[in-house]
Fold this sequence. Notes:
The chain is an all-alpha fold. It contains 15 helices and no strands.
Amino acid sequence: MLGKVALMPLATANKVLLARCLGPVLFGAYVIFLKICDLAGIFSLLGTKTLTVKLIGIAAGEKDWGLLKGTLSSIFKIVLAGSVGIFLLIWLIRQPLCFKIFKSPDLYIMLIYYAGVIPLQNCLTLTIETFKGLQDIKTASFLPVLQQLIFLTLLVLFWLASVTTIQNVLLALIAGLFLAPLTGLLIFAKRVKDWPTKRVAASDILADSLPMLVTSGVVLLMTSTDVYVLGIFSDAVQVGIYGVASSLASVTFLSGNVINQVIPAMIAHYNAKKDLQNLKHVIRYATTISSMVSVPVFLVLFLFGKNILAVLFGQQYAGGAVVLSFLILGQIVNTLTGSCDYFLQMTGLHVTFMKISIFSGLLNLALNIILVQYFGKEGVAVSTAFSLVVQNVLSVHVVHRKTGIWTFASLEIMFQILKYLKNRLFRFRGQA
Length: 432
């Protein structure tokens, strides 16, 4: 939680500084660039992101350190090959992608020089997921904070020197993406230097990871379709305004992100032991606590979103208030339904989740293309929020049908938590 609480203001400060210094046009191109890198990162990971947490969590639970080390070695080799392939693909298609599809010369400048972000981004992702699987949440939470801190420090220095060009912005981004995983790998290398290594075939990993690749790709496409469609059918200014609103809306899922630092490995652990009682207990309590934190944030952003956008990012971004309202409606449902996506992936139901994701992704794409032409960025926001709701509702239904467990928040548990906090408060006052 402390890691995410530290990460949120750093990430927000970076976006505020970038939005103000670059302006809506250049910031919009930067948002598209990051979405391209995210999508390229997912496909170059070949589905190993979620699988890493699962396999490392199981190996660590069984204290099979040789298996753990061999698994990681094979995963990193797979991702290295995937990263090189995607890097070359982006390099080959950069010209039609930028000039014919997104019609952005600024985007071309970003891609021609800085497609190397992708392998660095993948290395950071796998390092973080490894520490999650080991349930070393401190280190897993520290690494993204370090990356954002380095990024922010360099951005402030460039801003003070009045040299906040897009080239320097991307240089700062690369510096953070290089130093953060390097720190994590040095910590991990010290821990595993005396561990043996078992040979783990890459084909065995790919057999499980490729269905997850489809799922992860569709999920990211669903969360990125809004930016892609808006970039194609509109202009960079609208993308910039939408990008600011979207980043602010994601704050409402902060508590969900905190929960998802620890939940996947715990789900895999309890499921492997067939301990459904503890599995149910953990998932319901986690969702309820997450929702109790998110709902007040949701209400503040819903009621005062326009003012917050204007004060933080500048008056030119206040036009994203309606977009913000729709997006946070989708995020609050995402929070209330809990970690249903991770539940399916960690309990052997990843193929089912893949089918749900494909359906939701196609629905999102169709709605985005239709509504953007009539309602612009507001139509894109409605499509994105509705598709996210559909995916979560279907996932919750499947989890309950397959296991008898509900993943969404519980009023009964909420009252138990409030009663507990009330008793603790009275005891504290009595001691004082």
